[in-house]
Structures are given as structure tokens and as C-alpha cells.
Amino acid sequence: MRVTSQAFRTRAAVALKNVELQRAMAKAKGGFVDKRRVAIEALPEFEQLRSVAREIKEHTLSHLDYYLERFESQVIASGGHVHWARTPAEACEIVVGICGGVGARSVTKGKSMVGEEIAINPALENAGLEVIETDLGEYIIQLAKEPPSHIIAPAVHKTRDQVTDLFQEHHSRYGYNQRVTEIPDIVNEARQVLRDAFLSADVGITGANFLVAETGSTIIVTNEGNGDLTNTLPAVHIVTASIEKVVPTLEDATAILRLLARSATGQEMSSYTTFSTGPRRSTDLDGPKEFHVVLVDNGRSQMLGNEFHEMLRCIRCGACLNHCPVYGAVGGHAYGWVYPGPMGSVLTPLMVGLEKANHLPNACTLNGRCEQVCPMSIPLPKMLRQLRVREFEQRLTPARMRWGLSIWTYLARRPHLYQPVMSILVRLLEILGRKRGRFRYLPFAHGWTKVRDMPAPQGQTFQRAWRQSGDGSRL
Amino acid sequence: MNNNAREQILSDIRRALNRTTSLHKSVSAALMARLAGHSVHVQPVVETDLVNRFIAKSKAVASTVVTVPSLMQVPEAVTQYLTTSSQKLEVVMAPDPLLDDIDWPTSMKIERRQAGRQDVVSITGVFAAIAETGTLVLLSGAHSPTTLNFLPDIHIAIVRRQQIITHIEDVWRQIRSELEGMPRTVNLITGPSRTADIEQTIQLGAHGPRSQHVIVVDAE
Ligand code: SF4
Fold it and tell me: What's the CATH code, domain B46-217?
């Protein structure tokens, strides 16, 4: 997928004025947040589980090579295949190769963020395969030719009317000519249309929420059942999973599962939690004959050794998106790549390069809610600050801001200069602003004064007031 | 297989972890012990009346539940359920020997196999049922094809009282003691299929069963 994160500012401005998007986001707002809160209040062990989950992941990450090798040998022992891919290109090549090897013509897909990350759909389509997304949200955006705007609700930016239009446009060729406007009818039409796809696909591709080293199992967590039809009906099941998804045992996976659905949708368990281990056994009556796991690195082994390694604990629950005021205002597309919101603002620069996404770490008010709700206790605000530092160091910050910061740094390091300069500035602003008591416009502070006035200072600096008050009690 | 990629990823990981060689013996022994220990982490408190907890949790996720006193009453419960939901008495049933003991009425058309496109109603047993979350556990195998759990519109699961276990982890313990390794598929099913992809409104019956019906057999 093309990275358009550099256009964050313009896209965000457009998003704020997009009536349909704002209507869709307004509907979504609160739903996730309230459901999550209720679910977590009902589980007194939640905080304890949070620290357990963090421990499990940290333990696994610090022995990641061991657990990946163990996972691999268990998949092989159960009759499956494991492939390793350093880059999205390698991953696509592997998947296309497997499909080619079995003479596949059509592929059904369960929702997979790694699939989006490696852009598997265009790769398969270029190889002449028909690719059908089967998660309803993914299916909708596939019809609309758009990327997902949320990691668990990919079509959250679409209103019902827009879905109605899309279905009318695309389903008439299957003989569905009636305009469906009610949600049950819309869902039912998708169910009927996708049935044939499920039953005729040659290959099914899913992601994985977890990989279990102990057993070589891959786990998917879904509500619709599309992932299960995808991994049961076609003759070949391919799992694309990133390397940090591995956990040691089934018990470890279970502990984190207790956090996942609650944090994501406010459910105790999603409708379907499915463990796939190897291909169908000789006595099985159904299931795929081939089972492949493609392990994707794509920059993760680098993150493991640097200050962003905690990001590898992420279980893609979406809670940080749902609680982010910036995400809530501009939606997911403004972020310009696969992962939006706070987790995306950390991951995107790390995966596609900071120079292509240096606005994202700044699209944050540092209010800290994302970290508070993150089930894996990932310090997202700290990482966003670290990325801002990198941005500055790599001279990606706009020149004017760099100068401003340099001047301020110079002064702030020299108190004997800082104080007189500040008193003069404050004095000046006080005189200029005396009449109104506020500024409607200030040079260099247009971003502030465009939407609100800047109160005029009252003539004296904080430090002077502090000194005069003696102990600060009369401030 | 691209061995280069494998070796490079593993060596990049080792470098990131400040290790050049493979693990020290004592470390790998500890990791092996951790894997073999299967230690259980924090679990939610589950009251001792497992049957009622399972039923309440199942209903909370939009499954329908009836209780019958013994296996003998299962056909009647199935007939009644299908009649009230205006369905024909036509089912595809798991070739599970435990369902053989049931005396199905001749009026019911039964086929024992995996599910296909046209099947509307499936009946299966379960491997276990979890009281913690109201979850059904089904394992793929000759007696329990996975398509039965997902393709038909209605899935009827028959749960015997003694199959109800407390926590999710009890499934793993049971699999380890009763089977040789994991089956191809372990399904943890908690309610019927649903989606909230359109305007965040929950709609049942996305791609899997529209209805999840559970018959609890209360006999010891
Ligand atoms: S960063 Fe935390 S809250 Fe955000 S998706 Fe990942 S696990 Fe969930």
C-alpha cells in the first residue's frame, strides 16, 4: 500500500470537513469506549491480568528466537510448513508461490492486518488470482477500493447509506437488484454473496492473533465466522503472521485472550476463537489438506533491540484508537497507511521510515489515555515523544520550528539571558495587548490564534512573581 | 524455503537481544521447563454452580438454551425447537458415537456427515463447555467435522452436564490428558455469528450460524 502519511495535515483538514465521515465517526464514538468500560468493570482481575500479560510478552520477546524455532518445529511436526519473510516483498512472493504451486485461481481472506501491511491483495491480483475479503468490513472497503480505517472495524468510516450504494453497484451482477437499506438485509445479502466465494475458493488466507510455540497452533479471534469458513473450506490454508505474535503455551495465550476481546469490543470472548494446528488429519472429514505459516519480520527484529521494543507487545486490540481524540476527529485514513491512531503513529514511522511519516508522532495531544487503556501497558506517549526527538535529530522538523526550538534551547540553558529576554518579551506583549486583554493574531502562532485568542500576559514573568512572593504562597 | 531469510531473521533477533551464540544450556533448560509446566495465570472467579453459570453466560451471548433431564428427551427438545423456529425436520448430524445412543424419531431426516452448502440445521456434541464464558468447545476429527459448526444457519449443540468445566485452561488440561497432541482445529464458540461492521450495530448471523442453540442434558 502506498504510504501517504506525509499528507497527514491536509488529509486531516479534509477529514474534519467530510460530512459523511464525521457522521460515521459520531455513530462509532462512545460505543467501543462504553462497552470496554463495562466489560472491564465486570472483571476485578483485569489489572492483575494486565501485568501478567506484559510479563508473558516480555519473557517471550527476550527469547524470541527460541520460541519461533520451537513454533516452527511444532508446525512441521503436525504436518504444516513454515516460511520466513524479511520484507513484505518476500512475504508476497511466498504466498503467491504457494498459490501458484497448487494452481489456485481464487482466494478468500480473513481479516489480517499483516496482510494489509505486506499488501498481499495487489500481489495476488497481479499474479492473476481473484481475491475476496470475507470479513464484512473488509469486504465493504474492498468494494470501495479503500484501505481500512480502523484495525478491528475496517469500515467504521462508512455510513449505512454508503454501504447500500456499494452493494447496489456491485451485487446486481449476482442478481441482487433490490436496494437493501436495513442492516439485517445488508448483512444477509453479503452472507449470500460470499457463500459461493467460500465454497469455491482454492486457498484461504487468514492472519493470526497468536502463535503458540508449545503446540505450533495459530489462533484467530473473530465474530463473524468468516475466518473459520476461510480456514476450513479451501484445500490450502495460509496464515500470515508477524514474528512477535508468538507466545509460549496455551495457558499464556489464554491469559492474553482474556484481555483482547474485552479491550477490543467489550466482549468477554469473541464468538469464535479458533486454534489451527497443521492440515487435516487422515481421518478428518473436512479441513485444508495443506497448512502454511508465513512468518513476517518487516522491521520487528530491529525494534526488538531499540527503545521501541515495547511496541512489540501490541495485540492490535484497537483500544488506543477508540480512546484517542485525534483519531476520533480525523478517522483512520488521514494517517496514510495501514495502522492508524496512537499505535499507528508509532508503528508507521518505524516500518515505512520516519521521513515518510514524520507528522504522525506530532498528531497527538499527549493526553495519555491510550497508555491508560492499553491492555499491554505500552507507553505510547513516551514513544511518540521519542519519535519527535528522532524527527528533530534527523532534521525532519520544519525549519521554522527547528529555529524556534534552537533559540529557546539556547536561552533556556542560560538563565542569566533567559530571564531578561523573557521579561522584555512579556512586557512588550502586555503593552501591545493591554487594550483588549487578548490577541486575535500573533505572528508565528497562527495555528493557535486561528481557532482561539491568545490571552495577553499581565506584565510580569512567573519567575519574577515567584521571587516577589517569597515562598510562592501569594501567587 | 528461503533459508537465508530464516537465518537472517533469527540472527537479527539474537543480535537485538545481545546474544551471538545459541542459548546457554541452563537457560534453555529453564525455557523447556516453563513450556512443560503449563502454569496457569490469573483466572476469573467462577461460582461453583457450573451448570447455571454456563447457562447464564450462554444466554448473555445470545445463545438459546434448554435443559432436559436425560438423553431420552433430546429428540423432543430438537423437534420442538425446530418447529417453533419454522424449520423442517431435516438435520445434518455429527457422526459422533455419543449421538448414536439417542433414539431419533423416524419423522426426522438425518444425515451423518460434514456440512455442505444446502444444510440448514446441524447437530453436534461437544468436547467440553466452559462455564467461565458460556463457550462450547469442539475439536475437529472423524466424529466432529468442523464445517458443521459454521456452514448451517442453525447449530444445535448437545452438552452433557459433566462436560461443563470451569475455566478455559481446563480444556488444555483435558486435551493433553485425552488426546495425542492438538487436533487440526479447536473451536471455542461463544454465541452465534455476529458483526458490528455497519454503524456499530450488532447483527447476528454474519457468516456463521444465525442461531446457536444449546441443549444441556442434566443427567449425571
Ligand atoms: S497499542 Fe495497546 S491499545 Fe493500542 S492496539 Fe496495541 S495493545 Fe491495543
Answer: 3.40.50.10420
